[in-house]
Design a protein that fits this description.
This protein has about 475 residues and is an alpha+beta fold. Helix content is about 25%, strand content about 10%. It is built from 14 helices and 19 strands.
């Protein structure tokens, strides 16, 4: 069992509860809004947050006197034992017939002695309670801030990131830690130094030989700034010239070959490679790897390829393909139209077509499947042919066929999965083709009118108000356009 020492009376007088004004000898201890603390006797007045676990851990390493010590009670109590003892203490001031020692009521009270405050080591089993919640470093210097869940933020994170939100300054812990000797942050790397809470530890960590190595001519401010920035994202560090010892950007290159050969030497001779071997620590010897040039609390190196670089490469490839595709299409003519005279387009699918030198496409291959109309369709329209070839080669006008024209598709054609041929448009259509297309349009309109009449004649007499009865003068409508045929 760990041997506990008596706490200094002079120091204990400064650690009092803000509510009962008695020495804090029991827990739980809470931090209130005015940054003072409440002891375990007044825990009913505190809320269940901002509990000071770090303070309780350090306070558990001492023996405390009874609150009736002024009345000659000489009992030494452990942390949290004062509540049970004070309830049964025989030296409480009261009437003489109720006291076990009546003479104690008439004796004078003693004053707290002015003894010397001694420094003690922080026990190893308490170091896990004295770590920062962010960087896992020791809470060995001020300022220290406490969160609502009882976890603390150290001075390194505060200097690097500013004051944390929704936190309170842990003044009670900072005052109580003044009598303790904390280990160095690089304790796990082999440093055995133990220094008093405050600037002494901060100064040692910036110069510790187990920490990140710095140039010999660097000042303490530069060393402290490196430790403060250790929690920030690591950026490209400045290299040091072997001649001038002045910071120079890493991206500057010399124009002369001689200067370039001189700069090719190692820029920072202080940096040493990794060292492997046995390391002596407080728990024994361990086999580990030490990186002296690594910054304090720096994140591990990531050897994986940068995802952003891969995305940029893929985007560049797509842009190259788009440029090539645009170059293969051709040039625009003077009138703003596309010049197809020198173009040659081909595909590898079964419905492929090729154009070369003309804007009018050639008929598609007739090897495509034939269209067989259903039985009811042949029964209703006995004058139509039994079958027909590919729609682009043949068309129908009445009972005859018109070669080289687009097919006339009915709704039941599309329901049977008939694939309509692809139409290719061009801006250089000649006048002859335009007249031919107008004739095709007139023929298609005539055929649709004929089909509508036949369909309604089979179903029965049309209604008197039917719109089809008013459109029987179709020949008169298209009469002005007959000259274009």
């Amino acid at each position: 069992m760990q041997q506990l020492s008596d706490i200094s009376f002079s120091f204990l007088a400064t650690q009092t509860c803000t509510h009962c004004e008695l020495p804090v000898t029991c827990g739980p201890v809470y931090v209130v809004n005015d940054l003072s603390i409440l002891c375990g006797r007044c825990r009913m007045s505190a809320k269940d947050h901002y509990r000071n676990f770090a303070y309780e851990g350090l306070a558990s390493t001492f023996l405390y006197p009874c609150k009736n010590w002024r009345n000659n009670c000489s009992v030494k109590l452990r942390w949290n034992d004062s509540l049970d003892h004070e309830y049964e203490c025989n030296y409480v001031g009261c009437c003489t017939f109720l006291c076990s020692h009546p003479g104690a009521f008439f004796k004078g009270q003693r004053d707290l002695p002015r003894d010397e405050i001694r420094l003690v080591y922080v026990p190893d089993n308490l170091l896990e309670y004295l770590e920062c919640v962010i960087c896992r470093g020791y809470l060995n210097s001020s300022p220290v801030y406490i969160q609502s869940n009882g976890q603390n933020v150290c001075h390194r994170c505060i200097y690097a990131n500013g004051n944390p939100p929704n936190c309170r300054r842990n003044d009670a812990y900072e005052n109580f830690s003044q009598i303790f000797l904390f280990p160095c942050t690089y304790r796990n790397r082999g440093c055995k130094e133990r220094l008093q809470f405050g600037k002494a530890v901060w100064n040692h960590e910036s110069k510790c030989e187990y920490g990140p190595n710095l140039p010999q001519n660097s000042t303490f401010a530069e060393r402290a700034e490196l430790v403060r920035n250790s929690l920030r994202p690591q950026q490209d560090a400045h290299r040091l010239s072997s001649r001038q010892r002045q910071p120079q950007p890493a991206h500057v290159h010399s124009s002369n070959n001689n200067e370039r050969s001189e700069n090719s030497e190692p820029q920072d001779p202080v940096v040493r490679p990794k060292e492997k071997g046995l390391i002596r620590t407080h728990t024994g010897h361990i086999w580990a790897t030490i990186t002296p040039s690594k910054a304090l609390f720096a994140p591990p190196d990531d050897d994986r390829p940068d995802v952003n670089q891969e995305i940029l490469k893929s985007i560049a490839k797509k842009q190259v393909r788009q440029i090539r595709r645009a170059d293969d299409i051709g040039q625009w003519d003077e009138n703003g139209g596309k010049n197809w005279d020198n173009e040659s387009v081909s595909t590898s699918t079964s419905y492929s077509y090729k154009t070369s030198g003309h804007s009018t496409p050639e008929p598609l291959d007739s090897s495509r499947r034939l269209y067989n109309p259903p039985d009811d369709y042949q029964r209703d329209y006995p004058t139509r042919p039994d079958s027909r070839e590919s729609g682009y080669n043949t068309g129908l006008i009445g009972n005859g066929q018109l070669q080289g024209q687009y097919p006339i598709l009915m709704p039941h054609h599309l329901s049977n999965g008939y694939d309509s041929p692809r139409r290719i448009s061009s801006r250089d259509t000649s006048q002859r083709e335009s007249v031919k297309g107008n004739g095709l349009l007139i023929s298609e309109l005539k055929l649709r009118q004929d089909l509508i009449k036949r369909t309604h004649s089979i179903k029965g007499d049309r209604d008197a108000h039917s719109p089809y009865k008013q459109n029987n003068n179709f020949d008169n409508i298209i009469e002005p356009n007959r000259h274009i045929r």
